[in-house]
Design goal:
Length: 372
């Protein structure tokens, strides 16, 4: 997690120092800032304790903030996963207010008082991870964690936390809120899944296989597509488990690559958020149209040699022309399946789809829902 810490006083500066070093040791990417002229002299070398000599350069650990706190916060909303204010809640609230947009976009915001008594999850408790970060910080500084999300307080199933832990896209945040409200009201939520699961279903969920005479109107469906509609009001949770194999003529535009991939996905009503990666043959590793498509969607682009593709077992659509150019009779299907096999046995769910000089195939990796 990319964390930005800011302090406003001498006491806060000292506390932020502890957080900086410990969070970095725990593999977080941490940057510390200070917004006070009094903190610049607080760690004069003469003030360092004898057992703190290893931190003689600690005066430079925090960057001074010369711009307004409004400007600083706006920048951090763009470049950080989490912001930790070491100071008063009022400062944090006024600072973040102009930039708050939605659960899906906002970074986690945690407030720690300068004496380290409380660690407060202020914004994006679930999806942003503020609840977990507040508890981690509380453990570091021996503070009391303050978490106010209702499902946590009542020890109930939280669909947004469940989705985040399983790496799933939430199709409708408004419906997710309705599910949380229903859970808190003691109602049972339907559950359907195209995937097996580990652990036991929470008591708030009722497994529905499609054979029940009666099932809840409100339910969750873990799937890669929108083909089925098991409940009157269905919240789709989409895991990123699809590998898209692509082949194309040299010089094919990004727009054409995008259009053909979209049409191939539409055959199975698969949304782009289910895509984990794009794969092809190494002859295409510099193909601008594919590279631009992947960059725009923050998708890895992985290529394989003809020899690696030949080793993929199975029966595939053959093209003598493709074989003459690449050395293998099919690129998209083999590349898709090879990519999906990296984390277990994958399977083709969409065979070669060809249009406008682009070929696309879709494969799904082996994956399980985790309730543990």
């Amino acid at each position: 997690m990319k964390i930005s810490i800011i302090s406003f006083s001498q006491s806060g500066y000292r506390l932020s120092e502890m957080l900086y070093w410990v969070l970095k040791e725990r593999c977080h990417e941490v940057t510390s800032y200070t917004k006070s002229k009094y903190t610049k002299k607080v760690l004069d070398e003469s003030q360092l304790e004898e057992d703190s000599r290893d931190f003689r350069n600690v005066k430079q650990f925090a960057k001074p903030v010369d711009e307004s706190i409004h400007e600083w916060t706006g920048q951090r909303f763009c470049d950080s996963d989490a912001i930790v204010f070491v100071g008063a809640c009022g400062i944090a609230v006024r600072s973040i207010a102009p930039f708050v947009k939605s659960k899906k976009m906002d970074p986690a915001v945690v407030v720690v008082d300068e004496q380290g008594h409380f660690s407060i999850s202020l914004l994006s408790g679930h999806l942003g991870g503020a609840n977990e970060l507040a508890e981690e910080i509380a453990e570091i500084v021996h503070a009391q964690p303050v978490v106010t999300t209702a499902t946590d307080l009542n020890d109930k199933f939280a669909v947004d936390i469940f989705a985040k832990r399983n790496g799933c896209y939430i199709s409708d945040m408004s419906l997710a809120k309705e599910i949380s409200a229903a859970v808190l009201a003691g109602k049972q939520i339907g559950f359907a899944s195209d995937f097996p699961w580990l652990g036991e279903l929470p008591e708030e969920l009722k497994l529905c296989t499609g054979e029940e005479e009666e099932k809840p109107e409100l339910g969750i469906c873990v799937t890669t597509g929108y083909l089925q509609h098991p409940f009157v009001h269905t919240l789709y949770l989409i895991p990123r488990v699809i590998t898209t194999g692509v082949g194309c003529k040299k010089g094919t535009s990004k727009e054409t690559v995008e259009s053909v991939i979209r049409r191939a996905c539409d055959e199975l009503l698969i949304p782009s958020v289910a895509m984990e990666q794009v794969t092809s043959i190494d002859l295409k590793k510099e193909e601008q149209g594919i590279l631009e498509y992947c960059k725009e969607r923050n998708l890895p682009f992985i290529t394989y040699t003809a020899e690696e593709l030949k080793e993929v077992e199975g029966t595939y659509a053959e093209s003598q022309f493709v074989k003459e150019i690449t050395g293998v009779e099919n690129v998209c299907e083999r590349a898709a399946l090879l990519g999906s096999n990296k984390e277990g046995k994958g399977r083709l769910i969409q065979r070669k789809y060809a249009q406008d000089g682009v070929t696309v195939a879709l494969a799904m990796k082996k994956w399980s829902v985790d309730f543990e």
